[in-house]
Write a structure and sequence with these properties.
Order of helices and strands: EHHEEEHE
Number of domains: 1
Number of strands: 5
Structural class: alpha+beta
Shape: globular
Number of helices: 3
Oligomer: single chain
Largest sheet: 5 strands, antiparallel
Length: about 110
């Protein structure tokens, strides 16, 4: 499932919370881009104006006054972390990479 692949078409902002990692543009392209990463991760999005793409699981997103509120227990968050880290290990075998909480705001 792809959450968003471009920029917001108006001047609104969008805030996000992702459990995953940042993949630099060169690595992202060499590994096959969206087509490759969308097979393993629920969320794949190049952040406008940055030199990386965020991949992982979306925990929350808010856009221009329209809110989405998610609630996760610590146990549920840990289960989500385990699943994301399994996907990371599959995509980057032999590398010890852990998932991080990635949050921010993008403008369209």
């Amino acid at each position: 499932m792809k959450i968003r692949s471009g920029f917001v078409s108006n001047s609104s902002s969008s805030s996000f919370v992702i459990l995953g990692l940042k993949v630099d543009d060169d690595t992202f392209k060499k590994m096959g881009g969206y087509e490759f990463f969308e097979k393993e991760f629920d969320y794949v999005d190049h952040i406008e104006g940055q030199d990386y793409t965020v991949v992982g699981a979306r925990l929350g997103r808010w856009s221009s006054g329209e809110g989405e509120v998610n609630e996760l227990s610590i146990a549920e968050l840990d289960n989500e972390r385990i699943e994301v880290e399994k996907a990371i290990a599959k995509v980057f075998p032999g590398k010890e990479i852990t998932a991080s909480l990635i949050f921010g705001e993008s403008y369209g």
